[in-house]
């Protein structure tokens, strides 16, 4: 698969991921075909990754925004990462996703770590996003509970959150939804007898 075809698929998954996280994603972006993608983002000799940068806002809170950055380098070092961090600070955007072609250097990871907890910066390799894992038939529907919904659930069943089954924060589905430690996710599976089977998991 050529670079344009690969990044087209990755971008589509990223847009679906943002929509599933509650961000406003234009339908025209979701519906863009490969030829339109090529004509919009292909430069004279290479893909213009800078032009792929996204800035989206949450449906229920326009001040809750997220950047998606697409570094040019195969191995991403400190320089582009610091540039992204500076832009986040300048525009008061506290969350970002960086799409890595191959690897992130240890020094770049350290820069991300130093931005926490005020700034949340996730990174995915392109290979992880070629397909949308949540569309797989074996992956049940996941829904993040609000803090109020979480407390209502715990009160209803007289539980501490530590008594709930767990899902690791680095689980592929947890990463897709951007789940954070301490949150609770509702998992809905189809059931032949009950129609659907609901469980809850604590992110750890």
Compact summary:
With 204 residues, this protein is α/β, with parallel strands linked by helices.
Can you walk through the features of this model?
With 204 residues, the chain is α/β, with parallel strands linked by helices. The chain folds into 2 domains: 3-131, 3-Layer(aba) Sandwich (Dna-directed Rna Polymerases I, Ii, And Iii 27 Kd Polypeptide, Chain: A, domain 1), CATH 3.40.1340.10; 134-203, Alpha-Beta Complex (Eukaryotic RPB6 RNA polymerase subunit), CATH 3.90.940. The chain has 7 helices and 10 strands. The protein has helices at 3-20, 27-31, 34-41, 78-91, 106-115, 147-157, 172-177, and strands spanning 54-57, 65-69, 75-76, 95-100, 103-104, 120-125, 141-144, 166-167, 184-191, 195-203. Strands 1-2-4-6 form a 4-stranded mixed sheet, covered by helices on one side. The protein has a 4-stranded mixed sheet with strand order 7-9-10-8. A hairpin with a 7-residue loop joins β1 (54-57) and β2. It is globular, with a radius of gyration of 19 Å. The mean pLDDT is 95.
- DSSP helix count? 7
What is the H/E string? HHHEEEHEEHEEHEHEE
Highest CATH level, the class of the largest domain: Alpha Beta
Instruction: Output the radius of gyration.
Output: 19 Å
Helix/strand-derived class? alpha/beta
Please give the order of strands in the largest beta sheet: 1-2-4-6
Cα shape: globular
CATH T-level topology of the largest domain: Dna-directed Rna Polymerases I, Ii, And Iii 27 Kd Polypeptide, Chain: A, domain 1
Query: What percentage of the residues does DSSP assign to strands (E)?
Result: 15-25%
Oligomer: single chain
GO molecular function: DNA binding; DNA-directed RNA polymerase activity
Main location: nucleus
Protein name: RNA polymerase Rpb5, Cterminal domain containing protein
Subcellular location: Nucleus
């Amino acid at each position: 698969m050529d670079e344009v075809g690969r990044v087209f698929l990755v971008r589509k998954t990223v847009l679906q991921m943002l929509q599933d996280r509650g961000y406003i994603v234009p339908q025209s972006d979701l519906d863009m075909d490969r030829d339109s993608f090529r004509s919009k983002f292909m430069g004279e000799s290479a893909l213009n990754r800078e032009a792929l940068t996204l800035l989206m806002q949450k449906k229920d809170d326009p001040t809750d925004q997220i950047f998606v950055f697409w570094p040019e380098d195969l191995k991403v070092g400190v320089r582009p990462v610091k540039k992204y961090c500076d832009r986040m600070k300048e525009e008061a955007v506290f969350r970002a996703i960086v799409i890595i072609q191959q690897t992130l250097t240890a020094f770049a990871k350290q820069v991300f770590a130093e931005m926490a907890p005020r700034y949340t910066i996730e990174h995915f390799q392109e290979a992880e996003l070629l397909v949308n894992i949540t569309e797989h038939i074996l992956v049940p529907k996941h829904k993040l509970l609000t803090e109020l919904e979480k407390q209502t659930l715990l009160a209803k069943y007289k539980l501490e959150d530590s008594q709930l089954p767990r899902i690791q924060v680095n689980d592929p589905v947890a990463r897709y939804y951007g789940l954070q430690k301490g949150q609770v996710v509702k998992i809905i599976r189809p059931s032949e007898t009950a129609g659907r089977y609901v469980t809850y998991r604590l992110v750890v």
